[in-house]
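Extended Data, panel c. Modelled sequence:
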Amino acid sequence: MAEVVVIEQLFDPALTDEEHARIGKLIDRCAEMRNAHWMRSYLSTDRKRMFCEFEAPDAESVRDAYRNAGVEFVRAWGAELYKR
């Protein structure tokens, strides 16, 4: 069963639109091979911190996708989604 996985990234200098598109393509390819699917991203207004949500078998699948894509991240964890 898939779970929600959150991954955190930090950027210095701030993330540009071009860099965001570039790393997104790299991660998408690697994530697909691990049955991990991007759901949404939250980018801070200063563009130096981003949280991405994936639906994946587990957090390690997403970590592996980022590592194999050569994209740095701070941490990844499984999460529970609460809705009102």
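DSSP finds two helices and four strands in the chain. This feature is highlighted in the accompanying rendering.
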